[in-house]
Amino acid sequence: MPTRARRTLAYAIALVAFLTALSSLWAMKVSMPDNVYISYGLPAPWLRHQLVTIAGAVDRWLIDQQALATDVALWIVVSAVTVAALDWLRGRSSRRRADAAREG
Question: How far is Cα 4 from Cα 73, in angstroms, rounded to an integer?
């Protein structure tokens, strides 16, 4: 694999890893009169930390496995599309340089 392709792949993996970490740390606090919780995850909240219920204070963590699977699948697709797009852009610019070298 050429050096440029490795660098492109490394940039894509780093970008998607950053976006995945950012989406996992995304928090939304929901406060209702008898229920307070914090949801984590973007676009589908997959982790909920419940703080207060009608019975009083609690410390309960709930994991939504379906939403977690949706998030993982989404970020796998995003990484594949990112790598494909960067590869396509690199190939396009390489073809332009090769065409310009042949002409000039």
Answer: 28
pLDDT per residue over 32-52, tens digit each? 988 999 999 888 899 999 999
Cα–Cα nearest to 3, from 101, 90, 97, 84: 90
Burial 24-57 (b: 16+ CB within 10 A, else e): beeeeeeeeeeebbebbbbeebbbbbbbbeeeee
The distance from CA 65 to its chain's CA centroid, rounded to whole angstroms, is 17
Tell me: the pLDDT tens digits for 85-97? 877 877 776 666 6
